[in-house]
# Entry
Amino acid sequence: PFLFIDEMSMRRDANAPASGAAGKLVVHLLVRGYLQPASAGEGEQ
# Structure
């Protein structure tokens, strides 16, 4: 299949520490996908 990322957003949790490690990141992806046409004889019963 072909996958395309339409949108991506990333933010830090509000309770992440001000210094040191970044804490937990929240990532949102909007993904669009296309399936390739099945080749002849494949998946046909």
